[in-house]
Amino acid sequence: MRRIRILSSAFVLASLPFSVNSEGLERFNIDPGFLFGEGNTANLSFASVSPSIGATSGSALINLEDGLEVAPSFSAVNLSVKSSLTEKIDVGVFYTSSGNGVLIDWGTISGPATSTNVTIGADLKMPTLAALGKYKINDNISLFGGLKRTTVNDGAYAKVARDLDGNGTLDETSTWTLSETSEMGMVYGAAYEMPEIALRVSLTIEDDIDLEIATVGTGVIPAATGTSNASIGDAMTLHFQSGIAEDTLLFGSIRRSNWEDNQVSVPLSAIAQAASGGATHAELSTFEDGTSYSLGIGRKINDELSLSISAFYDGGDGTDTSELAPTGANRSISFGGRYAIAENADLSGGINYSMRSDSTTENLGAVLNDSSVMTIGASIAFDF
Length: 384
What we know:
This protein is mainly β and 384 residues long.
C-alpha cells in the first residue's frame, strides 16, 4: 500500500492548488481523484497566489496610475476527507475556499473612455463544497457522482465607472454590494483502472450553476437594487495517469469549460437603463469557452520521497479580455515533492510559475504585458 501511495503522489500533487485557471471565474477545480485512495484519508492544503499583472494605458484615451498592479495576492485552503464504507463504496467531501472568484482593482482612472460600462474593481469570493460517492463495479470500472455547492460570500462587490451623458468621459462610479447566495449543481463521471500499472483514466462532468444574487446598488449615478448574475459554466475534465516504468508515473488532464453563456452582470437603475438603450443589466465580463491541458511525470526516489514536474496550458479569453478578469493565455510549470513523515502521514509542497500572454482589455484598451503568477502550495495527508 505504501508503494502505490507514493507512486500516486505525483497525481495528487497535480491536483493541489498550484495553478490558477484562466477560464471565466475559475480558480481551483474539483478533482475526484481523492476518492480513489485506499482506506480512509484526509488531506489539507494551502496555496498562496501572487499575481504580477501590470497594466499600462494603451492609448491617449485613458490615464492609469504609474506602476499599476491590477490583481492583488490571495490565498486558498482545500480540504478533502474520504472514507471507504465497503470494498465497493467510498464517500467523501471536498472543500475549496476559492473554487471560483475574482479580485481586481484598477485604481484611479482619468481621461476619456471608450465604453459606457467599465469595471474598475471587484471582489467575488466563491467557495465550493462537494459531497461525492464512488461505486466500484469491478476491479477496473467505477462510477462516481454527487453534488457541489457554490456560494457567493456576503459583502462581495463590483464597482463600475460609466459615461452617462455620452460625451466619452469616464467620470462616475457605481457600486453593487452582493448578498450571500448559494446554489447546487451535479458532479458525475466514470473511471477505468488497471491497478497493477497504476493506470487510471476518469471523465468528470460538472453541471453549470446559475447564481442569482440579491444586490444593493449605490453611487452618484444610482445603481439599481435588484438581482445580479454570476453563473458558473459547465465543464468536462479527462484525468489520466499511468506507470511508465518502475516507480515512475505519467499524469495529465484535459478540461473543457463553457463560459460564453455565463457572464457576470449587475442591475441598472431606470436612469442608467435609459442611457444604455433600455438594457436592464450591465454586463461586466466577456468570458469565452476554453480548453486547458496539463502533463507531468512523477518519480519515487525512495520509500519516503517522491518528486514531480508538470506543465500546464490554458488559452484563457484570448488577446482581448475584460477588465473584470484581465488574463491572457496561461503557460505554467510546476515542481512538487512529497515526503512520508510517518507510516500514515505525508507532507507535500510545490511551486508553480505561470506566464500570461500579452492582452488588451476591451473597454479601456489597457495593455497587459509580461504578466505572471507565482503560486506556492503545501499540504498534509493522513490515513486513518
